[in-house]
Amino acid sequence: MMFDDIGGTIRDFMHEKPLISTIIGIVTLLFLAALVIILIQTAKPGASGQTFRRESFSADAKLLIPAAPEVEKDYYPSRTVKNAWTEADVAPFFTVPDAESMQSLEKANDAIIAEIIGAAP
Asked: Do 10 and 2 meet the contact criterion of CB atoms below 8 Å apart?
C-alpha cells in the first residue's frame, strides 16, 4: 500500500516535470556507474591458486661468465680534463668577428638595453 503511493507520486512527478526527472535519472545512473567503477578499481586481485616451491640451487658445473663486449679503440669511459686551453687548441674553433658583425651586435644590444631602461621610471 505504501509502495503504491510512492510509485504513484513518482509517476505524477515524472509526468509533471519530465526535464527534472530525466536529469535526476541521468545523475543517478552516472553515480551508480562511478560507484561500480570505484568498487572494481579498489578490489584486490584474487590469488591465482598457483603455489610455488622454493628449491635451493646447486651448480653441477662451473658457472661461465659471458665475455664482455670489445671496447672501441678510440672510446674512453673517462678522460683527464685540461684546466686551460692553449692557443693551438682554440684556433680551430675561434674566428675573429669583422667590424660589420660587431656593429650589428652593438646595435642589437643597445636596442635591448633601451627597451629595458625605457620602461624604467
From this structure: no
Distance (Å, whole) CA 120 – CA 118: 5
DSSP 50: -
Name the amino acid, one letter, at 49.
Answer: G
Taking each helix axis from N to C end, the angle separating 18-42 and 2-16, rounded to the nearest 10 degrees, works out to 110
- Determine contact, residues 14/21, Cβ cutoff 8 Å: yes
Contacts of 105 (CB under 8 A, 6+ apart): 97
Distances (CA, A) of 97 to 23, 90, 102, 105: 73, 15, 7, 10
Give the model confidence (pLDDT) of 62-119 as tens digits: 877 767 666 555 666 666 777 788 888 888 888 889 999 999 999 999 999 998 888 7
**17-30 per-residue burial string, b: 16 or more CB within 10 A, e: under 16:** eeeeeeeeeeeeee
To which residue does cell 664482455 refer?
Answer: 68
Question: How many angstroms from the chain centroid is the CA of residue 10?
Answer: 49
Distance between first and last Cα of the chain: 83
